[in-house]
Write a structure and sequence with these properties.
alpha/beta, 5 helices, binds 1,3,4-trihydroxy-5-OXO-cyclohexanecarboxylic acid
């Protein structure tokens, strides 16, 4: 089973950016946590981060017929990107939306998610553990199908 974990803009700044909101775990630490969890659960994982909307769309398209599940934290593009929503719909790969912070309790503009419309679950406000929970949800979902 192959899972692709996609992170959008500014998530490469984890550990530096607004630690009171996003915590002190760096992006490199996060990648390590995800890779360990994948190894423990027998999953093949690919990690991808970009600050560019079109690159995120390209990556989702390239996953077509090559990836069983997608974990995606689109960062700020969550709240604006119809293109990322459409890409997820186009490939129709089971996807889980993740947010480190509890977006639904923050500013009004963060309470809108386009990407959510193409995801079967959303995990928000669970810190970096949310990525691992999303991987578990995907494994269950893929096993069932
Ligand atoms: C975020 C929440 C977004 O609103 C924000 O733009 C991010 C990170 C989160 O993980 O909590 O970049 O997706």
């Amino acid at each position: 089973m192959k899972i692709l974990v996609i992170n959008g803009p500014n998530l490469n700044m984890l550990g530096i950016r607004e630690p009171d909101i996003y915590g002190r775990t760096t992006y490199a630490d996060l990648c390590g946590l995800i890779e360990n969890h994948a190894a423990e659960t027998g999953v093949q994982v690919e990690l991808y981060q970009s600050n560019h909307e079109g690159d995120l769309v390209d990556k989702i398209q390239q996953a077509y017929e090559k990836t069983d599940g997608i974990v995606i934290n689109p960062g700020a593009y969550t709240h604006t990107s119809v293109a990322i929503l459409d890409a997820l719909k186009a490939v129709a790969i089971p996807a889980v939306e993740v947010h480190i912070s509890e977006v639904d309790k923050r500013e009004e503009f963060r309470q809108i998610s386009y990407v959510r419309l193409a995801c079967f679950a959303t995990i928000s406000g669970r810190g970096v553990n949310g990525y691992l929970e999303a991987m578990d949800l995907l494994r269950e979902r893929i096993h069932e199908s």
